[in-house]
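General statements about sequence and structure are easier to judge against a single worked case. When preparing material for the folding task, we compiled for one chain both its residues and its backbone structure tokens. The amino acid sequence and the backbone structure tokens for this protein are reproduced below:
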Amino acid sequence: MMITADSQVILLLCSYLGLPPKPDPAPLTLREWNPIASKLQSVSMTPGELFDLSEQDLKD
């Protein structure tokens, strides 16, 4: 099974997989993820493209 870059980003940001019971910081909730997904869509980006951005790009 191959996991796409889009799936990897969503799993890394929104999943508890491999994390301790009370991680700090906690994964994003659906309410927290939705504005990010909307912003990505508005600039014609996919979640997987976040891997290609620099730290400064992500802050901007």
Observations:
- The helical segments are 5-14, 30-42, 55-59.
- The chain has a mean pLDDT of 94.
- The two ends are 34 Å apart (CA to CA).
